[in-house]
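Progress report, Aim 2. The chain analyzed during this reporting quarter is listed below.
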Amino acid sequence: MDQIDKKILCELDLNCRTPVTKIAKKLRINRNVADYRIKNLQNEGIISNYITAINLGKLGYKTYKIYFKIRREPNLEKEFISYLKEAKEIIQLVKTEGSADYSISIATKNILELDKFLMYVKSNFRNLIKDYFVSIVVYSRIFKLDKLLLDNKQNVLKSYKYSGDGQEIPLDDIDIKILKSISQNANISIVDVANKTKLSLDIVKYRLKKLESELITNYRIIPDLNKLGYFHYAIMLQIKQAKEADENKLVSWCSLNKKVLYCTKRIGYFDFIINVAIKDINDLNNFLSELKLEFDYIIDSYDTMLYSQILKLNYIPF
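Predicted structure tokens for the chain:
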């Protein structure tokens, strides 16, 4: 990959619905060159998907993270993965290495829905699940890809997600149709959305614009970090006696560190999760040394987890 490829990835990460002509103009390259480069990035698997991210808190959902440690039962494990992929409330499923074997994000409207899910899993996969722990996602700060690929430290925040009790935005069948049509195909054209949903072009344009102003946080690519030369690690922190100023300092530090992809505040066993792009074990050790040097006074303990494969990512839990 050269600088042009990296810049194209960063533009698509910011908004993958940006027309190719606009990207080409911004990067001062020919439109055909930009189109060829994007197709090449797709064919090589560097761009694995185009997704629509929404603020689930505005729909009345709370997001929970659940980590599972499992026993070696290959057939049951396949059944477990298949169930999680099909379950609408599971918005993310990741194969991990380290203190857990699988990480999931689940969006539910209340604690009873979460309890129902856990009871089902524990009952139907009792011979597979060795242990698990749950945490509540308070907020996430997601940073632009150009911080990592282009070392750009200006305006690094891409989106801010809060899992709260804010005013719920009502959705009707038309909104749901449109959201489902673009959830895993965020770069689809307006015309194709209209054809897919059997709605008029004017209705799609109007509704999509409204959803973008109220609910949709961004349209982005899912890059394959391994093919970019990185490993995706989660640094899981237990925090002691931290004040709001300490937390703000940690978030600010994450925003300035080029390796940090996003950071999340949690309520649970771990208080704060920092997701990083790491080149090798020395790079990981250096990152951890920097982190401990700066925040040893509030870090009680930490653990690391490797995200080895994203098996599902869909922000539409309905």
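The radius of gyration is 20 Å. The chain has a mean pLDDT of 95. These observations will guide the mutagenesis work planned for the next reporting period.
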